[in-house]
Each structure stands twice: as structure tokens, then as C-alpha cells.
């Protein structure tokens, strides 16, 4: 039986990581927001993420088959320390289990928060509901101020997904996107407002992959469908592990225990 376990938004919770990697399955898949989101100066917050990767997460990812994307709370400057640890799938499709493929997109529609390494405009002509008070990129090695025009210049989630679709057969590919699709059971804030990606929803409607895996919106765990596609957001694992097990024989989703 080929199965994998999936969790997202662990935000540096070591207990959740230890429990997840102890589960029996052929692979572990992670949907972003991997690293601690601590208090302090920008430099201190970035240092805490680097230390977490160096002293803990890198070795864990190397311990068993693991496929991962970052999320909008993960500084880009911390991620090079994960190079070669597990399989990074942001922006690419790779062979997975039982003749399937797996592909990932870490980008989310522009949030109100300042970290913008993984924020993108959803599609051409799209505009965020509100502009953040500050814009920070860290790819240069340290958090640095930028502008919304710099975010716009990085392209769109719609474009990201079309490039991914060209790398494998979508009908045989599991897509892992940190943002959930818009207007589903997976993207609602506590007041019911949908905050997912319209571009991701349109991609799923058009391409109909067998399954897509999501996170980002902590308060909307669940399993839903868009056409024939099973879509999953297990919820965050910041306080406790909330993972799912997927059986590739029938794309069923169940608790991991």
C-alpha cells in the first residue's frame, strides 16, 4: 500500500515534526510555513529560522523521503540551509510514488503582513484587498525594504502554475500550494471571508489533477472537491500535529494514526 502523510504550517513546532516523521508512510509531504515565527528584530527573527534549520530541521528532512515547499512566514534567506535536505518542490515537478508526480508552489496572494518573499499578485489585473504597511524581501541575505511594485514585478501565481503544468501530466500530479483555492471550505477566515487564490481555483478547475494539498489559512481545516479533484487543508500544526494520510490507490484521506 503506497501512502504518504501530509502536514502544513508547523511554524517550528518540534513536537509536531517529531510526531509527523515517526508516522509510518512511504513519504512525508509538507505544505509550507516550516520555520519558527518568533518575536524580536527582523535580524533576530531571521537568525532564529537559520538556527532552527541548522540545528534541527535539516537533519530531520534528510532522515526519510520528504517533499516540501516553504510558506509566506519562511524567510527566503533561511532556505539555502535546507539545500539537499529532502526534496524541495517549489516551482518544479518531480517523480513521486506509484508513477505519480508531485509539484509545488509556495506563493500566496499578497497578505497584509510585511514578509513578501513568497507573496505574489494572483493574476494580471488582480489587486490585493489592502496594501501592507511595509514590504520586506530577504533573498539578498538580510531583510530589506522594498515596494509593492517590486512584488508586482515578480510575476503572478497564475503564471507560476502554468509553468508547473508544463513539467508533468497534471492528471498524474499532486500539487502542493501553500495557498488554498478561493471560495472553498479550505480558505475561510473565522468570519467566513474567503482569502484563497482565485488563480489556484481556476487552475484546478481547468487541469483537474487528482489531488491538491494546501495550508496557509489555519482556521479552515477540511477536505473538499473541485470537480473530480480532492482538495485538502489539514489545518495548522503549530499547537499540535494535525496531519492526514493519503492512500494513492483511491486518493482517500484519513487521520494518520
Provide an overview of this structure.
- With 257 residues, this protein is of the alpha/beta class.
- It has one domain: Purple Acid Phosphatase, chain A, domain 2 (4-Layer Sandwich).
- The protein is 20% helix and 21% strand.
- Strands 4-3-2-1-15-16 form a six-stranded mixed beta sheet, with no helix packed on it. A six-stranded mixed beta sheet has the order 5-6-11-12-14-13, with helices on one face. Strands 7-8 form a two-stranded parallel ribbon.
- Strand 13 and strand 14 form a beta hairpin.
- The longest helix has 20 residues.
- The mean pLDDT is 97.
Which parts are unreliable, with pLDDT below 50 for 5 consecutive residues or more? Answer: none
Largest sheet data? 6 strands, mixed
What would you call the shape?
Answer: globular
CATH homologous superfamily caption: Metallo-dependent phosphatases
Mean pLDDT: 97
Q: Structural class per helix/strand content? A: alpha/beta
CATH architecture term = 4-Layer Sandwich
Quaternary structure classification: single chain
Would you list the SSEs in sequence order as H and E?
Answer: EHEHEEEEEEEEHHEHEEEEE
CATH class placement: Alpha Beta
Q: Strands across the major sheet, in which order?
A: 4-3-2-1-15-16
Kindly provide the radius of gyration, computed on alpha-carbon positions and rounded to a whole number of angstroms: 17 Å
Count every helix, treating DSSP H or I runs of 4 or more residues as helices.
5
- Overall number of domains: 1
Give the beta-strand count.
16
Could you estimate the helical fraction of the residues in percent? 10-25%
CATH topology annotation: Purple Acid Phosphatase, chain A, domain 2
Cα(first) to Cα(last) distance is 15 Å
